[in-house]
């Protein structure tokens, strides 16, 4: 759950060269295998969606080796069909990688763009996209394909490593066909840790849609003249001077101040409304640097420093802290306020100003890339509200389970208690995790595609930025999960034959997180290099 600091861009050159050399043969095979699909996709493509920006031209020298160029060419014909991509097939996180590498603060990739004159980001790991639009059936059962090395011969010994503890399960599914090609206790429920966020993402996108936005507003009560800051449950609302595309508390205050001044109002009673959510704000784990108390009103996830991801000390009352910052911004704009206190906006309150989050697809990407627990818990509550459940931990857990059941996913043994996976009582199966990934790749469900695009990229982004630096970098995309004694990895990989595979590896009873992570990485790398049947 801890997001590592990214390395300086200038240090990444040798690594990128190794990556390009390693993936060049796979890219060539994948491009050949994808030609029929590309032809169909090209004919089916509609106009560029208006929300996708046209990227600036990129000089050849800024990419690494010929394989990267081939990868972008392959991606360009595929990924503009659906999902939060730009026209060159690069994910938001990858487009912004160069900028992120030149600043501290983790792998937060939200909307910062690339500054003029800065190096462009590393190219997208295009092979991962192969097969997403192939016709396929529902997730099936184990069916060994003829010829080649058996999956069990390759994966079995690796998953039996002592570093993976006394209990481990696994599943591998061919995304194009839906066939489960490897099963090692795939139906056994274990503690999933942060891979729970994959389920939260699928449920939230299913309930709300990828274009849904979360709105924070300032409303004026007509009778009392009270100004109410109404929380809309946006976990990405920021008070930072540079909002970088997220909803800005400063902008909300400036616009509210202008509206008040137009009415001749220069002093108000300030309050804040957090009634959108209900139930306990504090997670069962208690006070923890990995998660703030969950409130419908929060700025910068209640962080008390300038960080944007990873563990940090949090405000004990994020809503009060956000309202205090809002009051300061109003004062700077010429509006005097009383010290803010809790209240509830009436139905007669007039909305003076609003700010809205980026689309839900962007929030899902940030949540998965950074393993952001705060976003996860907010999305669980938003899913609950959209499903007619209370906006609480229990309501979110119930709504996630119901949404996944409605999607026809294998829910036997699954148990949800939160949206982030911090609760050790959560239970998922490897079969459910791969089912979630396959469902997210379903061409009939393009709204779920951010689940795949948000997965950390091995050796490049988020919680995998410092892993796979010499093996399978740019080819494995996976969500990590780590609690004491628990290590999980679930994601997608393109094998040596160009097949897109969804995998889930779960281990319980581990004693060394570092050794367990290494064992899981070796297993995913073997899957990438396998070409098994």
Structure description:
The protein is α+β, with helices and mostly antiparallel strands and 533 residues long. It is built from 14 helices and 13 strands. The chain has helices at residues 13-44, 65-76, 92-95, 97-101, 151-159, 196-208, 249-262, 318-332, 360-370, 373-386, 393-406, 430-440, 450-453, 513-530, and strands at 167-174, 179-184, 189-190, 215-220, 226-230, 267-273, 336-337, 341-342, 350-356, 428-429, 477-483, 486-494, 500-508. Strand 4 (215-220) and strand 5 (226-230) form a beta hairpin. It is elongated, with a radius of gyration of 23 Å. It starts with 12 loop residues before the first helix and ends with a helix. The model is unreliable at 1-146 (pLDDT under 50).
Rg calc: 23 Å
**Overall average residue pLDDT:** 80
**H and E string:** HHHHHEEEHEEHEHEEEHHHEHHEEEH
* DSSP, total strands: 13
Give the % helix: 25-40%
Summed up, the helix count is 14
Beta-strand residue fraction:
5-15%
Shape: elongated
Q: What profile does the largest beta sheet have?
A: 6 strands, mixed
Computed structural class: alpha+beta
**Regions with pLDDT < 50 over 5+ consecutive residues?**
1-146
End-to-end Cα distance, whole Å, is 34 Å
């Amino acid at each position: 759950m801890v997001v590592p600091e990214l390395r300086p861009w200038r240090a990444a050159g040798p690594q990128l060269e190794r990556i390009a050399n390693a993936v060049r043969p796979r890219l060539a095979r994948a491009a050949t295998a994808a030609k029929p699909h590309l032809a169909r996709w090209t004919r089916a493509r509609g106009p560029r969606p208006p929300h996708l920006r046209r990227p600036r031209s990129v000089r050849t020298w800024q990419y690494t080796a010929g394989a990267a160029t081939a990868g972008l060419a392959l991606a360009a014909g595929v990924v503009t069909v659906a999902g939060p991509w730009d026209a060159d097939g690069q994910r938001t996180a990858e487009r912004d990688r160069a900028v992120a590498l030149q600043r501290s603060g983790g792998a937060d990739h939200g909307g910062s763009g690339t500054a003029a004159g800065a190096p462009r980001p590393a190219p997208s790991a295009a092979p991962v996209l192969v097969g997403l639009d192939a016709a396929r059936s529902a997730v099936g059962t184990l069916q060994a394909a003829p010829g080649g090395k058996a999956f069990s011969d390759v994966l079995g010994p690796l998953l039996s490593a002592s570093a993976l503890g006394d209990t481990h399960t696994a599943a591998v599914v061919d995304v194009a066909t839906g066939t489960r090609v490897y099963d090692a206790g795939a139906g056994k429920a274990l503690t999933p840790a942060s891979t729970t966020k994959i389920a939260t993402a699928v449920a939230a996108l299913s309930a709300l849609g990828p274009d849904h936005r979360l709105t924070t507003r300032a409303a004026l009560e007509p009778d009392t003249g009270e100004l109410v800051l109404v929380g809309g449950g946006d976990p990405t609302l920021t008070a930072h001077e540079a909002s970088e595309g997220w909803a800005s508390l400063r902008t909300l205050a400036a616009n509210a101040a202008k509206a008040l001044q137009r009415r001749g109002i220069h002093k108000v009673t300030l309050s804040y409304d957090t009634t959108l959510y209900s139930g306990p704000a504090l997670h069962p784990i208690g006070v923890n640097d990995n998660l703030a108390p969950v409130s419908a009103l929060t700025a910068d996830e209640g962080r008390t420093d300038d960080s944007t991801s990873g563990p940090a000390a949090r405000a004990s009352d994020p809503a009060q802290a956000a309202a205090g910052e809002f009051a300061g911004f109003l004062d700077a704009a010429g509006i005097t306020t009383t010290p803010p206190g809790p209240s509830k906006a009436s139905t007669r309150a007039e909305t003076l100003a609003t700010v809205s989050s980026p689309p839900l697809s962007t929030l899902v990407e940030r949540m998965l890339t950074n393993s952001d627990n705060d976003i996860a818990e907010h999305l669980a509550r938003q899913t609950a509200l959209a499903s007619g459940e209370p906006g609480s931990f229990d309501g979110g857990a119930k709504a996630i389970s119901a949404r996944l059941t409605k999607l026809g996913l294998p829910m036997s043994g699954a148990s949800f208690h939160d949206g982030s996976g911090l609760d050790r009582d959560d239970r998922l199966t490897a079969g459910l995790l791969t089912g979630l990934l396959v469902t997210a790749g379903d061409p009939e469900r393009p709204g779920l595609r951010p689940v795949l695009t948000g997965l950390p990229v091995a050796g490049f982004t988020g919680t995998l930025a410092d892993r796979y630096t010499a093996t399978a970098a740019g080819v494995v995309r996976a969500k990590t999960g780590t609690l004491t004694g628990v290590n999980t990895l679930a994601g997608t990989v393109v094998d040596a034959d160009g097949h897109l595979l969804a995998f889930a590896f779960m281990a319980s009873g581990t004693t060394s997180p570092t050794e367990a992570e290494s064992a899981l990485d070796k297993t995913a790398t073997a899957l990438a290099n396998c070409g098994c049947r």
